[in-house]
UniProtKB/TrEMBL annotation:
Domain spans labelled Major facilitator superfamily (MFS) profile: 18-466
GO CC entries: plasma membrane
Record-level Gene Ontology MF annotations: transmembrane transporter activity
Transmembrane segments: 20-40, 52-72, 84-103, 109-130, 142-166, 172-191, 203-222, 234-255, 276-298, 304-322, 334-357, 363-389, 410-427, 439-461
Name of the protein in its database record: Transport protein
Record keywords, A-Z: Cell membrane, Membrane, Transmembrane, Transmembrane helix, Transport
Record family assignment: Belongs to the major facilitator superfamily. EmrB family.
Record-linked SUPFAM superfamilies: MFS general substrate transporter
Record-linked InterPro entries: EmrB-like, MFS, MFS_dom, MFS_trans_sf
Membrane topology recorded in Swiss-Prot or TrEMBL: Multi-pass membrane protein
Keyword Repeat carried by entry: no
Compartments, record wording: Cell membrane
Source organism: Treponema primitia (strain ATCC BAA-887 / DSM 12427 / ZAS-2)
Length: 466
């Protein structure tokens, strides 16, 4: 999308109001996905279920979220995005209430699926709505607002999750969502109505079936990699191959169909879109995968409690908070390329101390390192998301949103799984405490390698002003 206005102009006050109201709504699913993970062991004990079964509390949520994402694109084009957003928020609210009342592990998993459906529709709808309403103006600043939850959640989530699990019943984790959803619903009623782009657009059932199948198979296979410790297990190999086949068929279908497809794969011919998409996928290794390892490092090497580990991670969130505003403004002024490249280098520098860290490394040094790492993470995510929409027509916005949401989910799952597999491999090399430290050091080297690799696709991001 083109922006002909000066990058120094302030964000439209009406757009700012819409953004803040809608962003409040996504606090609930963003916080929920962070704090529920820390309660897996507690839920397992209280619902008398094995860890392997309880993991489906998280897996089912991710899968249902991914299935809902393609539907969101059609819903946003077909109906009023205000109604779609409010409906999705209600679904997530109901799922949270029911999850807090779950009587066994099976019912909890079902209610987490309901939550995932609501979240899967809500998140793309928020993004699509704001991009459409802005007309492509001030995308960097707009993405900074959209990223507010990712600023606060890394600080609040681990601390709140650790505190609740240590002091209160696990059901309280779902109570947290209820007041947020109620306030967000009341405020959402004040959102202006935005007319649908194509009120007669038919549902692309074939495309959604192929895309959902690809997502389910890939995420399921990738999640199994962590327990199977590799790709060669049939439980991993078959679903991943099935997912790849679905992707191939979807690409062929998208290129041949004369109807409106859920994702127009021709978008990947755009340099800014394809490079941004690759960066979003790799960011799963840099952010999600490393965030999976960091709390374990503090607990296993530094002998910290879950709450203390969460507090140790807070500086990373503070670092993100300090740079995101500036990153958004710089992206509006000079484009995404140099902002992303410099931010990636800063993130790598902030991760570097962890390849030498031991149980004797001073906490202050690690806190400062996480602050620097967070500053880098906060700086590259905004311009990447802004450049996704560079050159897209209004009718293509939902396509871009769906593609990037799916790539982020698969990238995050892949990053976590691959780093977990490598970690288990390094751990298996010896039983000593020193070997455990070395295993973590090596994982952080891998994280730095992915960070520096990301500079290559960043070279193809746009330089022009939005």
């Amino acid at each position: 999308m083109k922006n002909n206005k000066s990058p120094d102009e302030k964000l439209n006050p009406k757009l700012l109001k819409i953004a803040l109201i809608m962003v409040l709504g996504i606090f609930a699913p963003a916080l929920d996905s962070t704090i529920v993970n820390v309660a897996i062991k507690t839920i397992s004990a209280e619902l008398h279920s094995s860890i392997s079964i309880v993991q489906w509390v998280t897996t089912a949520y991710i899968l249902s979220l991914g299935i809902a994402v393609p539907f969101a694109g059609w819903l946003d084009n077909r109906f009023s995005v205000k109604k779609v957003y409010i409906t999705a928020l209600v679904i997530f609210f109901l799922g949270s209430v029911l999850a807090s009342l779950a009587w066994n592990i099976e019912s909890l998993i079902v209610f987490r699926i309901v939550q995932g459906i609501g979240a899967g529709i809500m998140l793309p709808t928020l993004q699509t709505t704001l991009i459409q309403y802005s007309g492509g103006q001030k995308l960097g600043s707009l993405m900074a607002i959209l990223g507010i939850p990712t600023l606060i959640i890394p600080i609040l989530g681990p601390v709140l999750g650790g505190f609740l699990v240590n002091n209160l019943p696990w059901r309280v984790l779902f109570y947290v969502n209820i007041p947020i959803c109620i306030i967000a619903l009341l405020l959402s009623l004040k959102l202006p109505k935005i007319d649908p782009i194509n009120s007669k657009q038919p549902l692309d059932s074939v495309g959604i079936l192929l895309l959902s199948g690809a997502f389910i198979f890939l995420i399921f296979g990738i999640s199994k990699m962590r327990s199977a410790l590799g790709f060669t297990s049939m439980g991993v190999f078959i679903p991943i191959i099935a997912g790849v086949v679905c992707v191939i068929y979807f690409v062929m279908y998208s290129l041949k169909t004369k109807n409106e497809c859920v994702i127009d794969v021709r978008l990947f011919a755009l340099k800014s879109f394809s490079s941004s998409s690759l960066l979003l996928f790799v960011s799963g290794f840099i952010t999600t995968g490393t965030l999976f390892i960091l709390p374990l490092f503090f607990q296993q090497v530094r002998n910290e409690t879950a709450l203390a580990a969460g507090l140790m991670l807070a500086p990373q969130g503070v670092g993100m908070l300090l740079t995101r505003g500036a990153a958004g403004k710089l992206t509006d002024q000079i484009g995404a390329r140099f902002v992303v490249m410099v931010s990636l280098i800063i993130a790598a520098i902030g991760t570097l101390p962890f390849i030498f860290a031991t149980d004797k490394t001073t906490s202050v040094f690690l806190i400062l390192a996480l602050l620097v790492r967070g500053a880098g993470l906060g700086g590259f995510s905004i311009p990447i998301m802004a450049s996704v929409y560079d050159g897209l027509a209004k009718s293509q916005i939902s396509h871009g949103t769906i593609a990037t949401r799916i790539l982020q989910q698969i990238g995050g799952a892949s990053g976590t799984a691959i780093l977990a597999i490598l970690f288990q491999h390094y751990i298996s090399l010896g039983d000593s405490f020193e070997n455990i430290i070395n295993a973590y050091n090596r994982i952080f080297i891998v994280s730095i390698c992915f960070t520096l690799f990301s500079i290559i696709p960043a070279l193809f991001l746009p330089l022009k002003k939005y």
